[in-house]
């Protein structure tokens, strides 16, 4: 029974890694679609949403089956609980990517406007957060997750600056209000992706250390408990 349970944990991990790859890919496609005003990439994001939603349901079912199989040890229980929470955040990352793609589809119908914000830079920072949060999960390392938490402050400042500059632009240049509003919504969606990456990082810390750092960002222990006994898998394709 224990061997079967361990195999179930490994399968659950692989399922989440595949979903993480899909979510990361969706964000990257949406970000590049904004930069290039690329409708083809927008369509790829929209079509990929169903795969992410299907993966979410499969992962939840697999996690609940494992919980029902036997009474897991503390670290395994934390792992399963972390997976269910990460699973939800990854699905929402996919939703935010769809929102960005929809904004881009609106933007391409209008003339290009010179806006005083660097959405591409913000998008790159957010993509890096998602990627590093997944790396922290793959390697089971709280210090990698902590780095993601620290990056969130940078993205928050970018979003705040974008809001200030875009509102000012809308007041001064009424002819680009619609383009500026789309850019503002994209910035907000990117900031929400960063929030979900932060949640994933916090769940990795909970799994590895048993520490809840949701309201105390600096709470990663200097001497954490031993790493989980089950070996971290090879990085999944696309993650």
Overall description:
By secondary structure, the chain is an all-alpha fold. It has a single domain, classed as Methane Monooxygenase Hydroxylase, Chain G, domain 1 (Up-down Bundle), CATH 1.20.58. 77% of the residues lie in helices and 0% in strands. The chain has six helices and no strands. It has helices at 2-36, 39-69, 74-107, 119-139, 142-172, 177-209. The relative contact order is 0.16. The model is unreliable at 221-239 (pLDDT under 50).
Write the layout of secondary structure elements.
Blueprint: H1 2-36, H2 39-69, H3 74-107, H4 119-139, H5 142-172, H6 177-209
Question: Which terms summarize this structure?
Answer:
mainly alpha, Methane Monooxygenase Hydroxylase, Chain G, domain 1, 0% strand, 6 helices, 239 residues
Helix % is over 70%
Which consecutive residue ranges, at least 5 long each, have pLDDT under 50? Answer: 221-239
CATH architecture: Up-down Bundle
Counted beta strands: 0
- Biggest beta sheet summary: none
Terminal-residue CA separation: 31 Å
Structural class: mainly alpha
Question: How much is the radius of gyration in Å?
Answer: 19 Å
On the 0 to 100 scale, the average pLDDT is: 90
CATH fold group: Methane Monooxygenase Hydroxylase, Chain G, domain 1
Strand content: under 5%
Order of helices and strands: HHHHHH
Number of separate helices = 6
Give a short summary of the structure.
With 239 residues, this protein is an all-alpha fold. The protein is built from six helices and no strands.
């Amino acid at each position: 029974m224990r061997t079967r349970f361990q195999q179930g944990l490994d399968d659950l991990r692989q399922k989440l890694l595949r979903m993480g790859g899909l979510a990361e890919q969706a964000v990257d496609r949406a970000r590049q679609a904004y930069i290039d005003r690329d409708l083809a990439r927008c369509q790829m994001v929209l079509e990929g949403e169903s795969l992410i939603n299907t993966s979410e349901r499969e992962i939840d079912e697999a996690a609940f089956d494992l919980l029902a199989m036997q009474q897991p040890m503390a670290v395994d229980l934390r792992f399963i609980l972390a997976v269910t929470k990460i699973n939800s955040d990854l699905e929402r990352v996919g939703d935010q990517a769809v929102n960005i793609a929809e904004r881009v589809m609106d933007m391409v119908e209008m003339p290009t406007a010179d806006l005083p914000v660097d959405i591409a830079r913000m998008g790159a920072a957010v993509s890096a957060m998602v990627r590093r949060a997944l790396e922290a999960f793959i390697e089971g390392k709280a210090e990698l997750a902590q780095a993601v938490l620290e990056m969130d402050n940078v993205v928050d400042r970018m979003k705040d600056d974008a809001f200030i500059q875009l509102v000012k632009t809308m007041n001064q240049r009424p002819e680009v209000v619609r383009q500026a509003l789309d850019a503002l919504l994209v910035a907000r969606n990117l900031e929400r992706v960063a929030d979900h990456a932060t949640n994933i990082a916090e769940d990795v810390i909970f799994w590895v250390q048993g520490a809840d750092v949701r309201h105390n960002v600096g709470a990663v222990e200097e001497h954490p408990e031993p790493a989980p006994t089950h070996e971290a898998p090879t990085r999944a394709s696309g993650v």
